Amino acid sequence: MFLDREHVPPKQVSHPSVILDLGANIGLTMAHFATLFPAARILGAELDPDNAALCVENTERWRDRCEVVAAGVWVRDGTVPYVRREGREVSHAIAEAAADATSWTTAISIDSLLQRLPATTEVDYMKMDIEGAEREVLRSGQSWAPRVSAIKVEIHPPYAAEDCEADLQALGFETQVERRRCTYVVGVRAQQPLDVRP
């Protein structure tokens, strides 16, 4: 993560004051954001309770600016079935069907996450790595997307980069695909020229 820095915002987001880290895992990206942007408030969400507990521990140093929500990001609040992949704790994911699940966990919508911020607060940057739930979450994003200035989405098959671009463009973002170790789609509000980091 620290070598590739694939989670960092595009160049337009030089001094973010609010960051959402969706799929925060054990908190390394949140801790890195807190270090890179010492004035930023960082709100993270993590699907797996064990990972979320480590995320809280790993961001304790910045607890005045970092908040961890132990819930999977989904289209609505409630509970969701998920697949816990022992030995691959970076890729626990919401299950496509309850029969595939190894466990259940709390789900939270982005709208509910945003209620933790003052009503007029804009999100300068949203990192989304939610292990396959991104398609459904983006396609239900009409209510929260106008509050987001820039977003980076890690793509998980069968969701294709061009489909993600189309979904982000429908939400008002200019987009660009970033192919590195993983495939990402970067979106920046249409009035800002797009320039992703090398």
What's this model, at a glance?
By secondary structure, the chain is of the alpha/beta class.
Plain-language structure description:
The protein is of the alpha/beta class and 198 residues long. The protein has one domain (18-189): Vaccinia Virus protein VP39 (Rossmann fold). The protein is built from 5 helices and 11 strands, in the order E-H-E-H-E-E-E-E-E-H-E-H-E-H-E-E. A 7-stranded mixed β-sheet has the order 3-2-1-8-9-11-10, sandwiched between helices. The protein has a 4-stranded mixed β-sheet with strand order 4-7-5-6. The longest helix is centred in the first third of the chain and has 10 residues, at 49-58.
The global form is globular
CATH architectural group: 3-Layer(aba) Sandwich
Oligomeric state as shown: single chain
What is the CA-CA span between the terminal residues? Answer: 15 Å
Unreliable stretches, pLDDT < 50, 5 or more residues? Answer: none
Q: SSE string, helix = H, strand = E? A: EHEHEEEEEHEHEHEE
Described by strand count, sense and barrel closure, the largest sheet is: 7 strands, mixed
Return the CATH class: Alpha Beta
Q: How many helical elements?
A: 5
Question: Could you please say which CATH topology applies here?
Answer: Rossmann fold
CATH superfamily: Vaccinia Virus protein VP39
Task: Enumerate the strands of the largest sheet in spatial order, edge to edge or round the barrel.
Answer: 3-2-1-8-9-11-10
